[in-house]
Amino acid sequence: MPNMMDTIDGNMMATGGTATIGPVVGAGYILGFDATDVSNNYARLHAGGNVLPIGISAGQSEMSAEGVALLTAGASVSYYPCAGLLYVRAKAGQTFTTGLPVYCGAGGLALDSADASGQQLGIYIGDGSHASTVLGDLVPVLCSGVGHI
User: Fold this and answer.
1) How high is the pLDDT of residue 37?
2) Which among 17, 21, 32, 34 has the fewest CB atoms less than 10 Å away?
3) Where exactly are the structural domains of the chain?
4) Three-class SS string for the chain?
């Protein structure tokens, strides 16, 4: 069983360009890892779609001694594996209902069951219905592992 604060090496840059899809700016963001594409074989903010989530960020990604986010290969981010209860940052405008699926969205943000993007993260286990009106609102998700759609 992996340590709950494992560190993974990752390049936080988008593939083939200079536009960033990272760095991870805090705890609660969904991380993806697309091992099917060798050129994308690194951890990054989940981009939505069918990429498997590997974990939820435990904090911000690695910084230089000067306090600048590292955007180079070899930068790291600590994460919690997708198992058990985790608090995940949500996209604004989502409504989460107890027992309904939560999905992985672009930018490492959670989506409600109406905005399903392909890869399910788990189920919402908060009280009743919660409307996420603020970008990055934290919601409780019971993560059931990876590899299910």
Assistant:
1) 56
2) 17
3) 84-144
4) CCCCCCEEECCCECCCCCCECCCCECCCCEEEECCCCHHHCCEEECECCCCCEEEEECCECCECCCCCECCCCCCEEEEEECEEEEEEEECCCEEEECCCEEEECECCCEECHHHCCCCEEEEECCCCEEEECCCCEEEEEEEECCCCC
